[in-house]
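tool_log.txt
---
The assistant was asked to compare two proteins side by side. It first ran the structure predictor on the initial sequence, then on the second. Raw inputs and outputs are pasted verbatim so the downstream comparison step can read them without reformatting.
(1)
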Amino acid sequence: MIPARVTVATLAARDLKRQRDFYVGLGWELMAETDDFCAFGTRGAVFTLYAATSVARDTGIEQREPSGFTFSANVDEKEEVDVAFAAAIEAGGRIVKEPVEYDFGVRSGYFADPEDNLWEVAWVSPENQMAQAIRRAAA
């Protein structure tokens, strides 16, 4: 059985330095670094970048396109969505969708990092069912 938890999320980085600098620019704490790898401490899981050439060597699969999934960085207060979103753009992110508020208790916006990996910055109302899952994962 595999435990139902995500402890590390890793992106294959085509330009590791550029990606590293982007996430450092977001203010994320760099916890470990080698020539082809770096790790950032985040709330909920460790976020890592691994040189795409090293991923290809380890897995036997060369990645040519962005992964097709989206990361989400959830904030504690609705007003923080716009502040965090602006910080991502200031650090070099590209606007995909400006933050908007949904009638089911969510405010979110999407940006892409320098290699077009998609990120959502979101706030979820405490009354929303997803809020409990987020709190559990962050604990």
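(2)
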Amino acid sequence: MRHQNSVFHAITKHIPWGAFERLVAAHGADARVRSLTTKRQFLALLYGQLAGAESLRDIVGALESHASRLYHLGAGEVSRSTLSDANRLRDAQVFAGLFAALAAKALPSLREAVAAPLHLIDSTSFRLSPLCADWARFSSNACGVKLHVVYDPDADCPLYAALSGPKVNDISVAKEMPIDPAATYVFDLGYYDFGWWARLDAAGCRIVTRFKANTKLSNVVENDVVEGSNILSDRIGLLPRRLAASRKNPFADPVREVTVRIETGKILRILSNDLDAPAQEIAALYKRRWQIELFFRWIKQTLKIKHFYGRGENAVRIQIAVALIAFILLRLAQRTQAAVNSPYTFARLVKVNLMHRKPINRLARQGPLRMPDDRQFRLALDPC
């Protein structure tokens, strides 16, 4: 009988192991390691994310029950204390670097042919245990961290991720993000910085965001709008010349103000540096910002990222990086089959078949197992 590897083994084939080994060597992650190598640590944590494990004890028990199927993975049984120590001490940059390498490798195969890439920028918060107060205190009775992400909705893939304290402003992290020339960047009011906008504009990027209520344009030229549409006005003008009495605004080029009434009746003033595209296209680009919110809810609810395996900063950084890696691996694995179109249903099928020996393209053959309707799941999460 022909040997068939497990579903977990098939998913890990998409990992750029050469890049992982270089990261391990560069950071000395396996120096003086006796038993639990960085690879075995990573595979244990990846199993936990894909299986929905809520604790290290769950991971350890599951790997012990599947010990006979771990050999071909390069994995093995682990002890809870050893895994906990590795999460606390081993450099999280190894896992962050693997996420970056995997995202770069995955993007060409996940993204459809588009004229210009679309990048959505936003952040989400994770509430942590009060036991994390020594490094993640937000207030007298709350602890947390923020995950900042650049997300490509056409590829359904995160491109960049950074973790910060809960009090760090979004724009402070955005200024450290790499800029993709000629891309379209869509973001909300948390990234309201004329200097940063000027950098994006100088790189040839298209900007779509919202005006603050107190920002007025000067030297305004009115464009015609279609009567009866949800576009109320379309104007071109200049931003205020000064940020304060002694600081000149570095963004001196003309910008566009598209005023639109959304489905709820609320009126939005949308800003863009694209002076030529139809106003409806600008409004539609800003509406796509909800897709990054759907991504955040997906990783929190489907990958159970709200449950953290450790209380230290390093352990939290490692787990979030591994969760993002798990998300991309699921997207890549789903592209290798055509039987299941729903990302949510595919993730659930992977979860229940993770250590079963069967091809990825046969996951849907589950007999009486019923999966939730993906359309209902997406509608429940769509804030629009």
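---
observation on (2): The longest strand covers residues 118-128. Residues 7-96+310-381 form one domain.
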